[in-house]
Design brief:
Oligomer: single chain
Order of helices and strands: EHHHHHEEEEEEEEEEEEEEEEEHHHH
Strand content: 25-35%
Largest sheet: 12 strands, antiparallel
Number of strands: 18
Structural class: alpha+beta
Number of helices: 9
C-alpha cells in the first residue's frame, strides 16, 4: 500500500507495541498552562465523530487534497512522517542483494515487500498528524544481518571493507521530508551503505470516501519504491503500490483490504512480477489473498498488466498466500518440466514492526517531527484534548501565514534535503544538506544547522 505524505484525513493503522524501546530524547518541552483532564473517547465515539466529518465529503474526488482539520481526540499522537515508512522489518531490506541468483534477489525483494505492511496487519486503524511543509523525520534501525537468501547461494559482505556481515549488526538510516503541501507530497531515502543498498521515492496518496468506505490510491507523483543494489552492478527495482480500502466504518470494526494489482520490475535482469490481491472470498468473507507470477519480460516492449496475459513460456515462478500470514513461492521447471513444490517465502505471524532509533530530542531541530508536534503529543497523552486541538490549529495557522507571506513576495518553497518537491520519474535526489544529514545518521552524529527558512 502507498504511504501517505501529508496526513489527508484518512485513517491509518497504528503499529503494535515495538519489541524494544526507541532512544529517548532528553530535551524538555515548553511548559503549558494546566488544563482539566478530559474523558477519553472510546473507539466507537471516535468512529462516529470521524464518520460525521467524512459524510461532508461524499462525491469529492480526492479528500486528500481538501483542507480540513480533525480535532485532537480523533488523532493518534504520532507524526505522519514518522509513522509512514517501509522498514517495518529492516532485516528483510538489508538481505535483498545477498543471493548470487537473480531470481533469488527478486524473491528477496518480494520478502521485503510483504513485510513492509506489518503496520496494517498488527495494528488498529488510526490517524496521525498532518505533515507540515518542510517538516522532516530521520531515524536509524540496527539489525542483525542473519536472514539467509531466499534462493541459491549467497554472500553477506560489507561493500565498504569486504568484511563478512553474517549475524553482525548493520545500520539502516532513513530521512523523509514534506516537500510539497498542495499537493501533499513527501520524499524519502533509505540507506544501508555497509550492504550497498538504498531505496527512495515520493509518497503521495489520493483518497475518496464512498459513503461506506475510503478508497486510497497512489497519487500522481507516487510512482513506487525504487530500490538500488550497488553491490549488484546497480541493479534497480521499481515496486508500485496497489489501491487499498478502509472499510467497517458503519459497523465500527475498521479493516484494511486490498483488491488490486501491483508490479515489481527489474529492467537489468529483465524479470517482472505481477501481484494480484484478492479482497473477498466465498460469501464475502475477507481472505487477504494474493497471487502472483514471476516472469521474463522485455523492458522495451512491456505491456503485460494482467496475470492471465503472462505467457506460460515466460513464467519463472508463482507467488501465493495470505499477506496477513504466510506467503509461498513455487519455481517452474525449465522446458515445461513439472513445477517444484511450494517453498515458504515469509511467515508474518510472529513478526511485529521493529523499533526505531531516534535522535535525542536535544539534537532535533524545531521542524523535526517529534519536536515540532511535542506539545500536541503531550496534551493528547495528558488527555487535554481541547488544549491539544488549539495547539494543533496554531501550528496549522502558522503554516498558512507563512504560505501567504511567500505568495506575497513571489517566493517559491524549496525543500532542504531533496533537490525538488516532485520529480517526473518519481525518483528524488538528495541535496548536499540531505547527504550530510544521511551521513550523520550513519555515524550517529545528529547535530544539524537550523533551517534558514521554515515552512511552518
Amino acid at each position: 500500500m502507498a504511504s501517505a505524505s501529508s496526513g489527508p484525513d484518512t485513517v491509518r493503522n497504528s503499529p503494535a507495541p515495538s519489541m524494544a524501546n526507541s532512544t529517548k530524547s532528553t530535551e524538555t518541552t515548553t511548559s503549558l498552562p494546566s488544563a482539566t483532564t478530559e474523558k477519553v473517547p472510546d473507539d466507537s465515539s471516535k468512529l462516529k465523530a470521524f464518520l460525521s466529518i467524512l459524510r461532508k465529503f461524499i462525491g469529492v474526488s480526492d479528500i486528500a487534497a481538501v483542507r480540513f482539520s480533525l480535532p485532537a481526540q480523533l488523532l493518534e499522537p504520532t507524526p505522519n512522517l514518522e509513522y509512514w515508512n517501509y522498514l517495518d522489518r529492516p532485516e528483510t531490506f538489508v538481505s535483498i542483494g545477498d543471493s548470487e541468483n537473480e531470481v533469488g534477489r527478486m524473491l528477496g525483494v518480494l520478502r521485503f515487500w510483504f513485510t513492509k505492511d506489518l503496520k496494517y496487519v498488527k495494528g488498529k486503524p488510526c490517524k496521525p498528524y498532518n505533515s507540515t511543509l518542510g517538516e522532516f523525520f530521520r531515524c536509524n534501525w540496527e539489525v542483525e544481518d542473519a536472514l539467509p537468501p531466499v534462493l541459491g547461494k549467497g554472500r553477506k559482505m560489507s561493500v565498504v571493507d569486504n568484511s563478512a556481515t553474517d549475524n553482525k549488526p548493520v545500520k539502516v538510516s532513513y530521512i523523509t521530508e514534506q516537500t510539497s503541501h498542495h499537493p501533499p507530497v513527501s520524499a524519502f531515502w533509505v540507506d544501508c551503505p555497509e550492504k550497498g543498498i538504498a531505496a527512495r521515492g515520493f509518497d503521495q496518496l489520493s483518497a475518496k470516501f464512498t459513503g461506506t468506505s475510503i478508497r486510497v490510491t497512489p497519487g500522481a507523483h507516487n510512482l513506487g519504491i525504487f530500490i538500488n543494489l550497488q553491490n549488484r552492478d546497480n541493479e534497480e527495482y521499481q515496486l508500485t503500490h496497489p489501491a487499498a480500502h478502509l472499510g467497517g466504518l458503519l459497523r465500527g470494526a475498521l479493516s484494511v483490504t486490498v483488491a488490486d494489482t501491483c508490479y515489481v520490475l527489474c529492467p537489468k535482469s529483465r524479470i517482472k512480477v505481477i501481484l494480484h490481491y484478492i479482497e473477498e472470498g466465498w460469501l464475502g468473507k475477507n481472505q487477504n489473498r494474493v497471487n502472483g507470477a514471476i516472469f521474463r519480460y522485455n523492458p522495451e516492449k512491456d505491456n503485460t498488466t494482467r496475470l492471465k496475459d503472462v505467457a506460460e513460456k515466460d513464467i519463472i515462478g508463482r507467488i501465493e498466500g495470505c499477506w496477513h500470514e504466510k506467503l509461498h513461492y513455487t519455481l517452474v521447471g525449465e522446458k515445461g518440466d513439472k513445477k517444484q513444490e511450494p517453498q515458504l517465502l515469509v511467515d508474518l505471524t510472529p513478526m511485529f514492526p521493529a523499533p526505531k532509533i531516534i535522535p535525542p530530542e536535544v539534537d532535533q531541530l524545531p521542524n523535526e517531527s517529534r519536536r515540532f508536534w511535542s506539545d500536541v503529543t503531550k496534551s493528547i497523552l495528558d488527555k487535554q484534548y481541547g488544549q491539544a486541538t488549539k495547539l494543533k490549529q496554531d501550528l496549522e495557522e502558522r503554516q498558512r501565514t507563512k504560505a501567504a507571506e511567500r505568495k506575497e513576495k513571489n517566493e517559491e518553497w524549496k525543500p532542504r534535503f531533496f533537490t525538488t518537491a516532485v520529480a517526473p520519474g518519481g525518483i528524488p535526489e538528495l541535496t548536499e544538506d540531505g547527504k550530510r544529514a544521511l551521513r550523520g545518521l550513519h555515524e550517529d552524529s545528529f547535530k544539524l544547522d537550523a533551517n534558514a527558512v521554515l515552512g511552518a
